[in-house]
Amino acid sequence: MEYPLFWTLSYCYDDKEQMLDAIRESPFFSIQLDESTDVANCAQLMVYVRFIKELSVQEKFLFCHPLPARTRAAEIFKALNDFIQEHHIDWSRCCGICTDGARAMTGRHSGLVKQVQAVAPAAVWSHCIIHRQALATKRMPKELRTVLDEAVKIINLIKSCAMNARLFSFLCNEMGAHFHQLLLHSEVRWLPRGKVLTRLCDLREEVLLFLAEIDSPLVKHMEDAKWVAMQAYLSDIFDRINTLNTSLQGKECHVFFSAFRKKLDLWCTRVEQGSVEMFPTLEDVVEQTGLQLNCVQQVVIAHLKGLREQFGDYFGEETLANQWVRILFSFPVTPRDGLTLQEEEALVELNSNMDLKQKMGEVSLAHFWLSVETEFPHLTKKAVKVFIPFTSTYLCECGFSALTMIKSKYRSRLRVEDDLRLFLSTAHPRINRLCASKAQTHCSH
User: Fold this and answer.
1) Quick one: which H or E segment has residue 346?
2) Cβ-based burial of 143 (10 A; exposed 0-12, middle 13-18, buried ≥19)
3) Rounded Cα gap, residues 63 and 40, in angstroms
4) pTM summary value
5) Mind listing the pLDDT tens digit for each residue in 277-326?
6) Which of 55, 287, 323, 384 has an alpha carbon 20 to 30 Å from 181's alpha carbon atom?
7) Following DSSP, what letter does each residue of 8-39 receive, concatenated?
8) What is the pLDDT of residue 2?
């Protein structure tokens, strides 16, 4: 039996109204937003909201509106402010706004963030951690950049030509390779290059033979042990970065980067001592080719130190200012900035309560703090302002992925907000209840 679409849409509209009511009642809320151009060259503004409902933090799709002309800060703020005003949401309760680092968002004098803070003084801007992580890993020594560019040329030569792709796949099958194709390289940050380079390493012998058969001048790189070693190192380090990138994606993501920076220091020290065991692909290449590690040692050390410096520039050194919110019972109770004497005394009392310590291990961070609001109202208020702001624009990127599927070249004139709300809704329509509310149902013919 097929059910009319408007039944489900009606259910989603009810969910939207309930969400708006909850936002109005929430003591604080935060937003994340981004804009992207769809298949019809229409700029779409995507906005998500995080708010408090009962004893939990909710993350919901707020709206997706087309921007009629330019994508400057003024147009973006107008679309956002019009929605907030139309639905009678109090700007003063906004405590956070998360965007990328584009000039329209972060301009010093008239950027979107400045305009939002003019109407919501408590709103703190956070630069998307996934965007910062991608920027922090872009720079590399010239030698490694050259190797990466040449590896991309090899991949594109095989992968982007249909005949070469077929012949290479046949060759891999004949040689009994575990994989039968390379992966196409992409600069999009959501598709990290690590897996692309790893696949090239896995099929190194097959690629060398294929390039030799077609008499490509690129074969000289695959025959150069030093070049292969540097490409293997890139495969290993970007695999590590892939793991970090994946950990940043998801809802309610709170990631501290001190551990990764400490690993970079550790790896750098090990390479200086002549060990590359943390880079297994590079270690295999060194053993198989008999290459002296000092041929690539200084390049690897320079790259690791550069990564450490870049992560420091984009993320800064983590302080203990707000970590009491997340690691309350393992945190030293000492005077700290941002808390009054009364709040510090309340923190000592809370920190000494063993029953609450057990409870914190059984429930979510938000549930714990909201459940102690009656006893510790001021601490809870400050804690909420720490964990309710978004740290990334991951949800917006997921929304744009859904937009790409919904609004195709065959549906290029579609106004997508209603479809997106239905697609992204976490509500599950109760079909039986919907059917029971109708006098008669009709089967499809």
Assistant:
1) helix 341-351
2) middle
3) 19
4) 0.84
5) 999 999 999 998 888 989 999 999 999 999 999 988 888 765 556 777 87
6) 287
7) HHHHHHHHHHHHHHHHHHSS-EEEEEEEEE-T
8) 40
